Amino acid sequence: MKKMEKGRKSDIFFGKSRDILLSLYESPKYLSELVRDIKAGMPFIIKKVRELKEKGLIKEEYSEEKKLRILSLTEEGIKIAKFIKYQESLLRKPEIEEMKEIPKDRKKWILSLLYLAFPNEIKGITRLMKYLFLMKREYEINNEYNFIPYSHGPCSFEVFEDLEKLERMGLIEIEVEIHEPKIAGDWQIVKKIKLTEKGKEVAEKIYNELDNVTKVKLDELVKRFSKYTFAGLLHYVYEKYPEECKEVE
What we know:
With 249 residues, the protein is of the alpha+beta class. It folds into 2 domains: 9-90, Orthogonal Bundle (Arc Repressor Mutant, subunit A), CATH 1.10.10.10; 107-244, Arc Repressor Mutant, subunit A (Orthogonal Bundle), CATH 1.10.10. The chain is 49% helix and 14% strand. It has 10 helices and 7 strands. The strands form 2 sheets. It has a 4-stranded antiparallel beta sheet with strand order 1-6-7-5. A 3-stranded antiparallel beta sheet has the order 2-4-3. The longest helix has 17 residues, at 75-91.
């Protein structure tokens, strides 16, 4: 997989290429209409349109009525434009609320895992969820999350709820990475969860208040399973807890 936000970037998700795709997603346009909508010079827009055509994202048709070429998105272009709009919805940051007290409920376990992870971040909500599941099943720590069989193994929808609350409290940040399909298939989104500076302070206090036995268990869990690739972690859970996993159709 190739990261799109770090390392080599694909310009279709940024700048004027992105603007062109979103403009044509709204409606097909003549070149002159596209220039007015994007607010850029004609030569520049022609160059970008040519690049997007070469990528198979834009197609041209000739209008006999107006004697002009009309631009529209291909099926792949529509797919990418929808993806961009979805990406933008993920990047909207919630309003930060005042934290009245240090979390003492199940959210403390998310903060403790992030505190132990290096460098205070966990790549992917699914990975975090598997840590919380294994915390209950293998380390006998009742973190109060309820899991059901789901795609990619046991899932707790309460985790999504708590991540949203922790983000609003200003304790975590959720960064979005876009991965390009290596050969074929859909573009993939990975959400990286990390502690903010405020979150590091709070997580440290929470962790230090845990009893020594629990600390040892959490340390072992993070050290052990952070060595697993994402695929390896899923394989481990599927092999050991098949009853907790739903077959992907």
